[in-house]
Amino acid sequence: MKLKNKKVVENYNPIKDLFKEKTSRRDFFKWIGFSTASVTLAACKGPVIQSIPYVVKPDSITPGIPNYYASTMIDSFDIGSVLVKTREGRPIKIEPNSTSKYFNTTSARIQSSLLSLYDEERLKHPFLKGKKSSWVKIDNYIIQHLENISKTKKDIVFLSSSFPSFSTKKLIRNFKKIYPNTKWIIYDAISYSKVLDASEEIFGVRAFPFFDLEKSELIVSFDADLLGDWSPENMGPSYVSNRIPRKSMMQHIQIESNMTLSGANADIRIEKKPSDIKNMLFEIYQKVFFEKEPKNQQAKEIAILIEQAGSRSVILADGDHESYELSFLINKKIKSNALQNDQYILSKESNDQELNKFIENLEKGNIGCLFIHNTNPIYSFPLSISKKIKKFIRKIPLTVSFSMNQDDTNEIMDILAPTPHWLESWGDMNPVTNIFTLIQPTIQHIFDTRQLQDSLIIWGKMRYKNYYDFLKKTWEENIIPESNVSSFNEALFHGVVKKKNKKSIKSFVVNEKKIQKYGQKLINYEKEIKEHFELRLYTKTSMGDGYQYNNPWLQEFPDPITRTTWDNYLTMSYFDANRMKLKNWNVGDGSLNGNCVDLIKNNEIFIQDVPVLIQPGQAIGSIGLAFGYGQKNGKLSKLCNGKNAYRIYENFSIIQENIQIKKADKIHKFACVQLQNTTVGRNLVKETDLETFLRYPKEIWNEEEKISTHKGLLSPKEISIWNQNKNREENKKNGHHFNLSVDLNACIGCGACIIACHSENNVPVVGKEEIRKSRDMHWVRVDRYYFNKKENHDQESLNNPKVSFQPIMCQHCDYAPCETVCPVGATVHGKQGQNMMAYNRCVGTRYCANNCPYKVRRFNWFNYANNQKFDFNMNNTLGKMVLNPDVVVRTRGVMEKCSLCIQRTQYVIGMAKKEKRKIKDKEFETACSISCPTKAITFGDINDQNSLISKKIKNPRSYKLLDFIGIRPNVSYQVKIRNDKKTVKMK
Length: 987
Known about the structure:
By secondary structure, the protein is α/β, with parallel strands linked by helices. The protein is 28% helix and 21% strand.
């Protein structure tokens, strides 16, 4: 967390200075032993298997012992306060920073950003007019042009994604003093401008309102995916904190068109097309403000619930500017206690109005210099803008792109100024009111890259040695004196600080005309089914806005809802698909295929050959398409046939109306990891309603499964195939015995655990074709099941199903059926409760996989490392640097599976022995448990009677999956409880 070597702190480059100065033989060996130098050499030149030994060991590094650094992950879409785990100078894992109160969770995308550091396709040096250049030439060229442009009236424009950096904004102000015509324009690929504009009009602050759901008893969401990417900050922890089964348990009503994470977790889900959702919101607004009775029965019942809950309810909405305004006004009217009036999220700064002015000036030729930072507008602009924008950018005298990778925009820029990865960078962020975070490098620059801020200092001729000096001075003068820390190093250690002089935000009075504006609106619900569709654009959990498109971990991440990988697709209801004669079907090997369509608007084909995925719960008359796909640069673009949804993102609106669909001849091959969508009546995911849970004993809603024997039905605890070994149960009580518990009420299906396991355990990426053959290698999977009250469980009956998520990993059974059939003893049971694998003994018979009832074992069909057929991160020198040295890389013909992170448990035990102390309860963590944003996964030692895991196991909601088999798993689940006691009619 705190760097000890000052030269490392100042981005000192020991290799360059080594060759500039006269050095003795001893000095030479000292530098060769220097950690970051050896990492740089290993990254750029030598293969991983050839290491450079420590002649003089760095003080900050001990081989085999991890170091943690507090930092802030930031890209064009995501931001998070994190801890970076490094081994021998290499970042290998991203974990949440619990010191921070805000942005302290690590989503699948935040964790996967680690792999982008080791992307061999990164820009490695600057380019001038398409040719490799040096920073000296680049600096001279740009300064000369800036001086010439400053003599004219033309603007110098920085086009950037949201970048709420206190020090960078100060740098820009200093830069403006030298070049007064400088403008900073914020352009986010997925615009937050509408919600920010509405917030400014209703609250008087142009920022995303902060909602705290801990005290709310009713959430009504109008198409706002609060558990997805609706809010810039993960709302999962706040949401789950009040989902504990009790009388005051929160009720969640979700009205939406696409099936989302929020809809899947809702107690009551109502599917409506976007126009009907907005009409319902209008009616509830008119009821709250003007006592006007809603026409829609569902709106009438929801209005009653809001009136009963009062300030304990909160209304969330997504869509256009009006929808945000309506929801904000309702929350102000009912005085919702979820709305924190003195706290706002500042991480998004989109401004469509300023962007439109920039495009006008671009067309008029008023821009003399264009710097593009951390965004790819040629790819992400709507078709109407991107068609004409290229020729205007080419006419600008000076164009510079600051980016990590080659992209569509870079192809038309004069200069490519490659930037370092955030793990190689210095910086700061101001993501929330009065909260400031720091970014610090955890590795030296691997390539010849430079931060935007360092370039600004050079081009602006500022009197600072580098950006680090400027950052430190800025914090010591402006932030540290007014914060809860005493020094810059202390701020680095924690990674986040809070300002003491908290200025209260004055309450903003809304103009009465604004309230009356929506009061008299006439509302009409369309009853006829039209040929035109309403398109709802959305972000997938894996891809976000597409910034990490070239990341194989994310491409192979199964979507929580559809369970597909490597593609985006058009989601459509069964009704509409049948009407359009569109189908999904399984082919001979079981994999999924489907029809494709063309998307047409105003008689123009926007997107061709979009695959159609028939989605249970999709509102009739609506379709959905995910952002972030369809990029043409990067090696993964050849494997992924996704479509660019930004082409139809007109007016930066996520709702596009009057979309026509025409069936295409093309057949699409999906890569789907789960083809069985229901439990077929089996009681795998136990759940009940809140009223039953509160009124009746455990035997009613969590009945113990019995085993049928010649003596009748017996409890699994009464039967054992190991009766001859009486010491087996006694041995479990000695030392440690590890268990894992999953609370199905807290699991929202986000999949953060999947990427955490991938990163920790060196799980390989296998590619789309292998996924189609059901050869995925994920050690953890999050099964998604659809339910309805009908007896038949076919997919077509699930028009608006309930959804349940169930994480499945190796259950580490005490009487494991895999152990008894292994002919070579490769899988055995450890004394601490873990089912262990001796990889070098496994001969790949796959008997264990066939005998496993949970199907959690994975077979290595190929050598995924060092194999050009699997051209991902494990077949190149740089990509291998992400591998965890504590976990072996498995080879062909070997079975692998979850180990309950045995390397982590043994490390904790070893450290405690060395320090001669007892182990604290929360010291034991698996990769999945530490990264779960809602703490649905609990891991620990059940021999510690006071441990959290012991309490979870004893909880009446606890049950074990397939317990009636009698194999006694060490993983348990807690029954899911839904609060649908106050019913709203679904139809």
